[in-house]
Design a protein that fits this description.
about 250 residues; Rossmann fold; about 40% helix; globular; binds NADP nicotinamide-adenine-dinucleotide phosphate
């Protein structure tokens, strides 16, 4: 059995990834505040075990206990691989930093950066004696490498996440059973996050029109296709420990 812990599988890319991973011998453990009916129905149809853990990742101090509950579902004796995909994320607040409320900056980094760090730490602790494949994939963005006017929180969180994944790979590389860790920018995907971006004000996000045009010219990829590419990366030899890649450079 392979176990997949996926944050943000209720919609968007996370849902697309979870759908791509539905197959015999896979058990999905999904974290979000809401659930995907489609995913639950498809999992039942494919006889694939799937659990939703309803959880707000902004509540950082309860993440260690959440991880304990998730790992109670994992039979390490029967597992050949355990995977964590830190996918859940938000783009807001979208505006110049001096116009952001302090609590909005705090909330953003708790969801996009601190939650993946705490899930990763718990994952490493819970799998320390597990000798099978252990991989963590962080869902990053081109915004990790390029500054965008109005996205200071988003760019900072994603850049931090990339560096965090590299540090984990560095800390793990001499372990007897290392956890592998990498990050991937998934391309521009037709999800609710893109709707929020197109709905932002021009004065807050000066690149808004470009994102409107990308949508109107059909250049956004579907969550289903993006999910398939991410699933392939996660399970194939293309997974490169310590790297931070853009999926568009690979597939
Ligand atoms: N869409 C793009 O073009 C694009 C491009 C580059 C990178 N990305 C990255 O891809 C990832 C997925 O984004 P998406 O476009 O699929 O966004 P989305 O459609 O808005 O989905 C976001 C997911 O994150 C979960 N989430 C958000 N806040 C949460 C919280 N406080 N606690 C628990 N779960 C939370 C949501 O679940 P609930 O609402 O049910 O809690 C949802 O499942 C993000 O990390 C994003 O930065 C997206």
């Amino acid at each position: 059995m392979k176990y997949f812990i996926i944050s943000g599988a209720s919609k968007g890319l996370g849902e697309g990834l979870a759908l791509a991973l539905l197959e015999e011998g896979h058990h999905l453990l999904c974290i979000s505040r809401s659930e995907s009916r489609q995913l639950k129905t498809m999992a039942a149809a494919k006889n694939c075990p799937l659990d939703f853990f309803f959880f707000d990742l902004a509540v950082n101090h309860e993440i260690t206990s959440l991880a304990g509950n998730i790992f109670q579902k994992i039979d390490k004796g029967a597992a050949t691989g355990i995977y964590l995909v830190n996918n859940a994320g938000v783009v807001e607040p979208v505006r110049r930093v001096e116009d952001c409320k302090p609590e909005a900056i705090d909330m953003h980094l708790r969801i996009n950066l601190i939650a993946p760090m705490l899930l990763t730490a718990a994952f490493i602790r819970h799998t320390i004696d597990f000798k099978g494949e252990k991989r963590i994939l962080n869902i990053s963005s081109g915004a990790a490498k390029n500054p965008y006017y109005g996205w200071s929180c988003y760019c900072t969180g994603k850049a931090g996440l990339d560096m965090f994944g590299r540090c984990v790979a560095e800390e793990q590389k001499n372990e007897a059973c290392p956890v592998q860790s990498m990050s991937v920018a998934p391309g521009i995907i037709d999800t609710g996050m893109q709707t929020i971006i197109r709905g932002s004000k021009e004065r807050d996000f000066i690149h808004r029109q470009k994102f409107v045009e990308l949508k109107e010219s059909g250049q956004l990829i579907s969550p289903a296709l993006a999910g398939k590419k991410i699933a392939h990366l996660l399970l194939s030899d293309d997974f490169r420990d310590g790297e931070s890649i853009d999926i568009r450079d690979r597939y």
